[in-house]
C-alpha cells in the first residue's frame, strides 16, 4: 500500500513508524526540514519538505498512485484542504484528516464531514481519543489498558498480575471451569518483554500483563478475580487544561457529578477560558511543579493526579511530586516511547501513550477484510481486532474445537445481535457475527485472510 502522511510531528511519526514496519510504501510531508530529516534518518520512509496541501508537493510525494493520504498536521484547515486536493486532483481513494478543534466536532455539525459535503473519508481527533482513554482508566483504576469494541459491549482489559493475584499458577482452561458464568477470556500474555497469544494450558505468573477480553458488565468482576479492587477516584486534580484536559473535565462533570475536580493550568488566558466553560470544576492558574499550588489544590487529600500537559518531563515530575505530598495515585500522559520504561521505577502508577491510541484508529482503515476496529498493544507487537464474519469465511459454521487457527491468534468473544458470547469448544461462528480477537503482529495477515471479502460473497 502506498501512503502519504502530511505532518511529521509526534502523531505523524507514530503512524509512519507502524506503517513502514509493515512494508508499506510511506511518504511523509512536512514544512520543517528538521522533522523530515529526523523521520527519514530513523524510519524506512521517503521525506518531502513542503506544504501538505499544495498540489506540487503532493505530486512529488506520489499522490497520483497513492492508496491513502493521512493528514495529521497541527492545523485542521491544512488537513482538510490536503484531503480535498488529494481527491480533486489525484483521486486518492482513502483520505483521513486529523481534526483538533472541538467546534468542528460538535454533534450539530455531524454532517459536515459527510462524503457529500467534503472529500474526507475519516476524521480522527487524537485529543478526543486520548481523552476517552483517560476517562476509561479513571473508571477502572485496576486496569493498565481499557479499550471497547462491538458497540461498547465488549472490552479488552490489560491487567497486571501482582503477587496476591488469585489466578496465578492456574491453567487458563481451569478458569473457565471455575467461573463458568464469567464472560472473560485471557487472550494474550506479556512476560519478560515478550508478547504471545494465550493458550488453554498456559498459566499466569507474577509480573505478567494479561490481556483479557470480556463483556462490559463483567469488567469489575474480572479485575477483582485478578486481585484488583481499587476504588474509583472521587477527588481528582488534572494538570493541563488543553484540549485533552478540558474534554476530560467536561465528561466528568456530565457523567460523574459527584466527583470533586480541580484543574491546574499554567497559561492564564487558557485558565480563564476553561473556568468560564466548566460549571463545577475549580481552575487554578499555576504550575503543577509548584508545591504551593499543589497544596492550594489540597493535593494531600486527592485520590488521583492526572498529568495531561504537553511536556513529558513535567508530567512525570508532577506525578512524582504529587505522590510525595500525599496524593494516593497518579495517571500520566507520556508521548516519548523512550520514557515508558522508567515509569515504574520513579513511582508512576499508570500511563497513557497517545501515539498508540491514534495509530490504532488509523490501522482499522489500513487493514484488509471486514475489519471494524483495531487496537495496537505493546508498540504494535500485537493487535486486538474486531472483525465481521461473512458467509465465505472459513470460520463460519464449524465448532471451535475443529477450527485450525493460525499460531498467534486467540478469539476472545463473539457479538451476535445484541448478545455477547464467550466461545467454548461447541461454539460456532455465524455469518454477520462480530468477532473480537487477539493477534500477534506476524498473524495479522492471517486475520485479514480469515475475514476477507471473497468474490463468492457478491
What would your notes on this structure say?
The protein has 458 residues and is an alpha/beta fold. Among the domains are: 2-124, NAD(P)-binding Rossmann-like Domain (Rossmann fold, 3-Layer(aba) Sandwich), CATH 3.40.50.720; 235-327, Rossmann fold (3-Layer(aba) Sandwich); 357-457, 2-Layer Sandwich (Alpha-Beta Plaits). The chain contains 14 helices and 22 strands. The chain has helices at 10-21, 33-42, 55-60, 76-90, 126-139, 172-178, 219-225, 243-255, 268-277, 291-296, 312-324, 343-346, 354-366, 444-450, and strands spanning 2-6, 25-30, 46-49, 68-71, 94-98, 122-124, 145-149, 154-160, 184-191, 194-197, 209-215, 235-239, 260-265, 282-285, 304-307, 329-333, 350-352, 371-377, 382-388, 409-416, 419-421, 434-440. A six-stranded parallel beta sheet has the order 3-2-1-4-5-6, sandwiched between helices. A six-stranded parallel beta sheet has the order 14-13-12-15-16-17, with helices on both faces. A five-stranded antiparallel beta sheet has the order 7-8-11-9-10. Strand 15 (304-307), helix 11 and strand 16 form a beta-alpha-beta unit. Helix 5 packs across helix 8 (243-255) and helix 5 packs across helix 13 (354-366). The radius of gyration is 23 Å and the shape is globular. The model has no long low-confidence stretch (mean pLDDT 92).
Per DSSP, what share of the residues sits in E-state strands of 2 or more residues? 25-35%
Mean pLDDT rating: 92
Largest sheet: 6 strands, parallel
Fraction of residues in helix? 25-40%
Count of individual beta strands: 22
Classified by CATH, the class of one domain is Alpha Beta
Structural class: alpha/beta
Amino acid at each position: 500500500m502506498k501512503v502519504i502522511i502530511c505532518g511529521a510531528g509526534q502523531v505523524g511519526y507514530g503512524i509512519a513508524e507502524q506503517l513502514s514496519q509493515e512494508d508499506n510504501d510511506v511518504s511523509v510531508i512536512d514544512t520543517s526540514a528538521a522533522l523530515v530529516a529526523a523521520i527519514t534518518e530513523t524510519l524506512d520512509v521517503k521525506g518531502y519538505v513542503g506544504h501538505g496541501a499544495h498540489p506540487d508537493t503532493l505530486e512529488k510525494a506520489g499522490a497520483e498512485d497513492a492508496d491513502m493520504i493521512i493528514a495529521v498536521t497541527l492545523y485542521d484547515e491544512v488537513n482538510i484542504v490536503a484531503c480535498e486536493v488529494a481527491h480533486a486532483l489525484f483521486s486518492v481513494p482513502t483520505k483521513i484528516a486529523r481534526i483538533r478543534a472541538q467546534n468542528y466536532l460538535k454533534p450539530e455539525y455531524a454532517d459536515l464531514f459527510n462524503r457529500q459535503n467534503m472529500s474526507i473519508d475519516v476524521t480522527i481527533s487524537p485529543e478526543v481519543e486520548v481523552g476517552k482513554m483517560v476517562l476509561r482508566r479513571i473508571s477502572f483504576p485496576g486496569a493498565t489498558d481499557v479499550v471497547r469494541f462491538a458497540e461498547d459491549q465488549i472490552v479488552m482489559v490489560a491487567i497486571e498480575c501482582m503477587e496476591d493475584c488469585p489466578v496465578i499458577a492456574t491453567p487458563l482452561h481451569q478458569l473457565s471451569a471455575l467461573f463458568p458464568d464469567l464472560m472473560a477470556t485471557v487472550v494474550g500474555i506479556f512476560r519478560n518483554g515478550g508478547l504471545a497469544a494465550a493458550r488453554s494450558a498456559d498459566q499466569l505468573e507474577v509480573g505478567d500483563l494479561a490481556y483479557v477480553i470480556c463483556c462490559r458488565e463483567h469488567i469489575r468482576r474480572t479485575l477483582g478475580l485478578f486481585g484488583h479492587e481499587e476504588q474509583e477516584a472521587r477527588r481528582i486534580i488534572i494538570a493541563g487544561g488543553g484540549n485533552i484536559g478540558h474534554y476530560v473535565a467536561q465528561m466528568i462533570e456530565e457523567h460523574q457529578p459527584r466527583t470533586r475536580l480541580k484543574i491546574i493550568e499554567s497559561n492564564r488566558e487558557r485558565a480563564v477560558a476553561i473556568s468560564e466553560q466548566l460549571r463545577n470544576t475549580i481552575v487554578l492558574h499555576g504550575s503543577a511543579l509548584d508545591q504551593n499550588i499543589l497544596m492550594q489544590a489540597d493535593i494531600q487529600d486527592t485520590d488521583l493526579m492526572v498529568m495531561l500537559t504537553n511536556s513529558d518531563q513535567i508530567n512525570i515530575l508532577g506525578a512524582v511530586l504529587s505522590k510525595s505530598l500525599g496524593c494516593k495515585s497518579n495517571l500520566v500522559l507520556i508521548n516519548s516511547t523512550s520514557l515508558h520504561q522508567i515509569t515504574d521505577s520513579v513511582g508512576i502508577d499508570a500511563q497513557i501513550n497517545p501515539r498508540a491510541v491514534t495509530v490504532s484508529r488509523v490501522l482499522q482503515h489500513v487493514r484488509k477484510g471486514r475489519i471494524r476496529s483495531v487496537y495496537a498493544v505493546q508498540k504494535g507487537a500485537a493487535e486486538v481486532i474486531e472483525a465481521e464474519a461473512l458467509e465465505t469465511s472459513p470460520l463460519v459454521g464449524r465448532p471451535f474445537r475443529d477450527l485450525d487457527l493460525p499460531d498467534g491468534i486467540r478469539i476472545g468473544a463473539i457479538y451476535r445481535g445484541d448478545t455477547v458470547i464467550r466461545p467454548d469448544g461447541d461454539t460456532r461462528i455465524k455469518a454477520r457475527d462480530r468477532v473480537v480477537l487477539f493477534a500477534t503482529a506476524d498473524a495479522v495477515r492471517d486475520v485479514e485472510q480469515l475475514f476477507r471479502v471473497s468474490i463468492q460473497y457478491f
